[in-house]
């Protein structure tokens, strides 16, 4: 190792400017002003903004929490601490349905202090008894299952101070009060393991109520609960009947209260939604609309009485994750007619959501909209890859002038639509496509001097938008859309860079633990839409079940949240226990595994080019990896006995791997990229065999003409293993490869999302087999993690997770002249912008307040580094090829000659 230097920049304490600090972005349970949570000791977090001042650290904080009557419920003394994430509420017991307000005051190391604006949080209905509402549903249903409407009139005769609606459903619901939609969430109550728990939503509906006569109503859809779901045409996974549970808790200005709740006084009918299924699409018949059905003036005398359903209420939980909302709206970029004569609109982006349009025609005119991701080789509308998902929305006109349609209780994955039965000429401007996904805050951006890589980043982000729809799904278009565990773990770390997926995964991981089989293995999909709690087989695949160890650890690294590890610990341990129980002499070489799913194969593989990695070899690597992550979690949680037990187990598992699969010279029995990448990333090899393994990996890639050959389980580790062991050049060659198989090949073929297969569209325009060919599958987008963490170089220090300690360590390569990444860490924005200019390397860095960072500037030999034009002072030792500088928060401008 070369002897180099470790340098320090003087922390310019308040020298540049003496602006005030700010404290902002107050979160309760990682949400901004949530209307209802059910954590009894909620966790408070906030951010400091140090303005232009460098090296700002919080030195103390003081929190105050008050109730609705402005009584203090928690006001601990000032605490000397730099903790600004997850401070646990420890005041008097928080009450069901009550709203609380909190403030925080912070002090910093420059003698400044700041007080926050108030933040609020509401408590949910904490006990089953707090629900006065009863489950209600339609009296009887027609076989075609039109969407039931449920409604009730009520009177408000005093001034309303506050009204909160708590709502959930078996199935999906959309609620209305006085003709207005309640909230802006879609596909509520979202998807959990319904046989174990159902989330409810809470909305502040104070402004929807009016003096005098009011009405509340809801429409229901089959959704995940009883619709067609779980591959093919399976249905009624969780139940046969759909039902609604709704309760409005009203507090009047005079302090008195009232409740409006679902019971048998509600009335039911059906309206214009005649059919709605996730996979199949929907039918809307505007002639059947019951105008004003959720207003007080509506006459419901012809409606039937709603029927009470005898369902439990002790499985109801407040919503943890951000609900699904509407996001980007796309206009038509092209209208064309296919060789078959189909009228097609192109929205220019493969997206997930639905199409809204305006039309006028005669009563009974029927328009059918079909959805597709691609056109086939001949240029015709292609839906074979949707398999059993019909993905068709049908609209029947009322004939009353201009009508606007959009489907309900369904969604589609598409870029193109085919329109049939449209009366008159189609006007593209009358159609828009709305992207719909979980409302997670965007957190990251990555761009560079290579436009194809920028398109790759775009595609990764759209893969995420399309597949983070309340649960992490494999794909959003065909008869699947399931919470495939393997796909989720592969992409989980990348996902944190693009959006805040903290609560999204925290919620899903609870279902992982709940649906875990009693033997410790995991169903392949969560929620378990296949076995639904019955361990009839199907589970325990290496790399899939490891979602239960990998994702909590990734979330801990990204968000520094120990609670995720605490909550998942037993599940992590049970999974490692499963692998141990199936092993002989520490070798796990039994069971069914998906292996390196969709790895490189060729049709005419005469010379044996396919990259087959033994499934059991992969299983052994994941056995070790999960055991390591369990040890890590045990260390964080102070479980020293477990650290000892599993450290011993890990040594045995690695020993067995070496004996079974590796020659003394380090040749791995499956001589593939996946085998070497996993061996290196999971530390399977002794120190002395690592460099040669990296060499073999680089050689293998060269032998394949600088192509990757990996599938789902090798791809996420490939570039990282290469760059970590001195082969960054090979990693960049892979990244920039444009021929199949590669990340850029689909981009050359016009992809706007990540594909399931490396060759979804073949070079000659033929499409891959329809049985497994999604054009919106995020797994291979896992390269995004390497782009952020290695190319831009923004990472957390694992010993200071959640970016409390940051490293900025760019990797120059790929002929990039410029790379810019911004990342919203839990503490605020961190940036790494680098460029190569006139023989100089220039690096602009932003480090958020209340964190510290080590910035590594790539340097050759002893070349001098400046910051803001001044030389940085030498102090100690340094890493090969970089000059390392410790800094506090602030903006920095580094420069060195190359
Ligand atoms: C899914 C995958 C999944 C796989 C498991 C597929 O049908 O779409 O992405 O991980 O099955 O084999």
Automatic annotation (TrEMBL):
Q: What is its EC number?
A: 3.2.1.40
Under the heading InterPro entries, the entry gives:
6-hairpin_glycosidase_sf, 6hp_glycosidase-like_sf, Alpha_rhamnosid, Bac_rhamnosid6H, Bac_rhamnosid_C, Bac_rhamnosid_N, Ig-like_fold, Rhamnosid_concanavalin
User: For this UniProt entry, which residues form the secretion signal?
Assistant: 1-19
Q: Name one GO biological process term.
A: carbohydrate metabolic process
Q: Which GO terms describe its molecular function?
A: alpha-L-rhamnosidase activity
All residue ranges annotated as the Alpha-L-rhamnosidase C-terminal domain in the record: 798-868
Q: Which residues form a coiled coil?
A: none
The Alpha-L-rhamnosidase six-hairpin glycosidase domain, residue ranges? 443-791
Domain of life according to the entry = Bacteria
Q: Give the PANTHER family listed for this entry.
A: ALPHA-RHAMNOSIDASE (EUROFUNG), ALPHA-RHAMNOSIDASE (EUROFUNG)-RELATED
Indicate what this protein is called per its UniProt record. Answer: alpha-L-rhamnosidase
Native source species: Mucilaginibacter corticis
């Amino acid at each position: 190792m070369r002897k180099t230097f470790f340098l320090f920049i003087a922390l310019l304490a308040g020298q540049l400017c003496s602006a005030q600090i700010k404290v902002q972005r107050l979160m309760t349970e990682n949400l901004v002003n949530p209307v209802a949570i059910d954590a009894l000791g909620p966790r408070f977090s906030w951010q400091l903004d140090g303005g232009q001042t460098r090296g700002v650290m919080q030195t103390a904080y003081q929190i105050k929490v008050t109730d609705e009557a402005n009584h203090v419920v928690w006001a601990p003394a000032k605490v000397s601490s730099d903790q600004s994430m997850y401070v646990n509420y420890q005041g008097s017991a928080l009450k069901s349905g009550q709203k609380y307000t909190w403030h925080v005051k912070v002090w910093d190391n420059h003698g400044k202090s700041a007080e926050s604006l108030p933040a609020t949080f509401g408590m949910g209905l904490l006990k089953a008894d707090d629900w006065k509402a009863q489950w209600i549903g339609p009296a009887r249903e027609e076989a075609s299952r039109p969407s039931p409407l449920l409604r009730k009139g009520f009177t408000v005769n005093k001034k309303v101070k506050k009204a909160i609606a708590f709502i959930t459903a078996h199935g999906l619901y959309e609620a209305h009060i006085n003709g207005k939609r309640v909230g802006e969430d879609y596909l509520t109550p979202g998807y959990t393991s319904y046989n174990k728990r159902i989330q409810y939503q809470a909305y502040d509906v104070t402004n929807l109520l009016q003096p005098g006569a009011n009405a509340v109503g809801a429409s229901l859809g089959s959704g995940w609960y009883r619709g067609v779901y779980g591959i093919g045409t399976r249905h009624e996974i969780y139940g046969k009947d759909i039902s609604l549970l709704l309760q409005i808790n009203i507090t009047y200005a005079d302090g008195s209260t009232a409740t409006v709740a679902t019971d048998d006084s509600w009335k039911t009918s059906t309206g214009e939604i005649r059919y709605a299924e996730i996979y199949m699409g929907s039918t809307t018949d505007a002639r059947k609309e019951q105008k004003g059905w959720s207003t007080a003036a509506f006459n419901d005398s012809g409606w039937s009485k709603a029927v009470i359903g005898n369902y439990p209420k002790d499985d109801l939980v407040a919503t943890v994750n951000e609900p699904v909302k509407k996001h980007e709206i796309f206009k038509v970029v092209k209208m064309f007619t296919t060789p078959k004569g189909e009228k097609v609109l192109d929205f220019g982006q493969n997206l997930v959501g639905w199409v809204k349009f305006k039309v006028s025609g005669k009563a009974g005119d029927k328009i059918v909209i079909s959805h597709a991701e691609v056109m086939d080789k001949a240029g015709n509308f292609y839906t074979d890859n949707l398999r059993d998902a019909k993905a068709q929305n049908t609209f029947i006109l009322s004939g009353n002038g201009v009508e606007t349609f959009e489907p309900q209780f369904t969604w589609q994955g598409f870029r193109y639509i085919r329109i049939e039965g449209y009366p008159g000429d189609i006007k593209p401007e009358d159609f828009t496509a709305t992207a719909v996904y979980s409302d997670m805050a965007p957190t990251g951006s990555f761009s560079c001097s290579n436009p194809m890589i920028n398109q790759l980043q775009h595609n990764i982000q759209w893969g995420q938008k399309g597949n983070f729809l309340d649960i992490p799904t494999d794909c959003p278009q065909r008869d699947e859309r399931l919470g495939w565990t393997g796909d989720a773990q592969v992409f989980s770390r990348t996902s944190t860079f693009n959006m805040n997926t903290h609560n999204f995964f925290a919620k899903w991981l609870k279902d992982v633990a709940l649906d875990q089989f009693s033997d410790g293995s995991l169903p392949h999909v969560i929620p378990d839409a296949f076995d639904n709690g019955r361990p009839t087989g199907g589970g325990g695949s290496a790399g899939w079940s490891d979602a239960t160890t990998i994702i909590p650890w990734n979330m801990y690294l990204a968000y520094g949240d120990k609670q995720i590890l605490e909550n998942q610990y037993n599940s992590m341990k049970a999974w490692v226990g499963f692998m141990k129980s199936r092993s002989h002499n520490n070798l796990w070489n039994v069971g069914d595994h998906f292996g390196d799913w969709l790895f490189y194969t060729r049709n005419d593989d005469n010379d044996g080019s396919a990259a087959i990695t033994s499934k059991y070899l992969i299983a052994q690597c994941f056995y070790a990896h999960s055991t390591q992550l369990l040890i890590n979690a045990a260390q964080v949680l102070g479980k020293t006995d477990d650290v000892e037990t599993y450290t011993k187990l890990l040594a045995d598992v690695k020993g067995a791997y070496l004996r079974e699969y590796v020659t003394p010279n380090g040749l791995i029995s499956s001589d593939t990229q996946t085998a070497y990448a996993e061996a290196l990333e999971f530390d399977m090899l002794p120190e002395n065999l690592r460099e040669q393994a990296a060499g073999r990996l680089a050689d293998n890639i060269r032998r394949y003409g600088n192509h990757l050959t990996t599938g789902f389980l090798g791809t996420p580790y490939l570039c990282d293993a290469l760059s970590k062991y001195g082969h960054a050049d090979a990693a960049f060659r892979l990244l920039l490869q444009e021929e199949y198989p590669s990340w850029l090949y689909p981009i050359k073929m016009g992809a706007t999302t990540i594909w399931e297969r490396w060759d979804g569209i073949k070079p000659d325009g033929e499409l891959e087999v329809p049985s497994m060919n999604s054009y919106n599958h995020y797994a291979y987008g896992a390269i995004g993690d390497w782009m952020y963490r290695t190319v831009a170089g923004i990472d957390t220090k694992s010993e200071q997770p959640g970016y409390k300690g940051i490293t900025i360590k760019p990797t120059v390569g790929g002929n990039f002249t410029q790379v810019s990444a911004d990342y919203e860490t839990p503490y605020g924005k961190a940036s790494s912008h680098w460029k190569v200019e006139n023989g100089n390397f220039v690096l602009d860095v932003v480090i958020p307040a209340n964190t510290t960072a080590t910035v590594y500037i790539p340097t050759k030999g002893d070349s001098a580094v400046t910051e803001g034009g001044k030389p940085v002072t030498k102090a100690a030792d340094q890493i090969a090829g970089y000059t390392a500088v410790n800094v506090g928060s602030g903006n920095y401008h580094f420069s060195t000659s190359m």
